[in-house]
Amino acid sequence: MADTYRTVAEVGRAYFEVRGSEFTGHVAPVRSKDAAEAYIEEVRAEFSGATIIPAYRVRVDSGSGYILREYQSDSHEPTGSAGKPALNVLVQQELENVVAVVARYYGGTNLGIGGLARAYGRGVKEAVEDAGITERRPEATFDVEVVYDDSGTVRGILESADVEFDADYEETVSFRVTVPVDEVAGLKDRLQSATSGRADITD
């Protein structure tokens, strides 16, 4: 895999009608298969009663490097008329860590396989245009658990490193850290050194 990858810059949306059917395309950047599926369910809940066509391309760490997991579904549309055209837009634009969903409310007129394929592809394409495309570096996520006395030190290091993290203050303090892959080892070393090895770090 390349040092950087192309993905959408933010959440994007597009709406249009074709012969009475209403199509709303959505795309979002995601970091995992679970996040992609959660986004699909969000759209499904928002567009109750619509036909929901999902597709995603997500990097997965196989232990020996990254593999690209692709998924698409035709839902209740004719085979090949919906999910594949949606996924093809992501493939053609070389987008990764991205999920696309097109919601369709049927307008009473059958569009045929060709018409459906064009509409579902358009839904993704226009949503990508709305979101914009950016390049990002591959990232990894790990957890850091410390006692309260060390939590300020850990938070300070994470903030100075300008990485994304979530903190959970329970009996101990847990940080979920997302960082570019090539910075993981160095950051873990800094955290262990600053806490004299007391930080419990797990992938």
If you had to describe this structure to a student in words, what would you say it looks like?
The radius of gyration is 21 Å and the shape is elongated. The strands form three sheets. It has a five-stranded antiparallel β-sheet, sandwiched between helices. 33% of the residues lie in helices and 37% in strands. The chain has two domains: 5-136, Ribosomal Protein S5, domain 2; 139-202, Alpha-Beta Plaits. It contains five helices and eleven strands; from the N terminus they run E-E-E-H-E-E-H-E-H-E-E-H-E-E-H-E. The model has no long low-confidence stretch (mean pLDDT 93). A hairpin with a 2-residue loop joins strand 2 (12-18) and strand 3. With 203 residues, the chain is α+β, with helices and mostly antiparallel strands.
Please name the defining characteristics of this protein.
203 residues, alpha+beta, Ribosomal Protein S5, domain 2, Alpha-Beta Plaits, 2 domains, 5 helices
Tell me the domain tally: 2
Q: What's the Cα radius of gyration?
A: 21 Å
- CATH architectural grouping of the largest domain: 2-Layer Sandwich
Instruction: Note poorly predicted spans.
Output: none
Largest beta sheet: what is the strand line-up?
2-3-6-4-5
Helix content: 25-40%
Largest sheet: 5 strands, antiparallel
**What's the helix count?**
5
Question: What share of the residues does DSSP label as strand, in percent?
Answer: 35-45%
User: What is the N-to-C succession of helices and strands?
Assistant: EEEHEEHEHEEHEEHE
Can you identify the CATH class of the largest domain?
Alpha Beta
By CATH, the superfamily of the largest domain comes out as: Impact, N-terminal domain
Give the tally of β-strands.
11
- The CATH topology name of the largest domain reads Ribosomal Protein S5, domain 2
End-to-end separation: 21 Å
Task: Give the overall pLDDT as a whole number.
Answer: 93
Structural class: alpha+beta
Family: Belongs to the IMPACT family.
Domain UPF0029: 145-198
Pfam families: DUF1949, Impact_N
Protein name: YigZ family protein
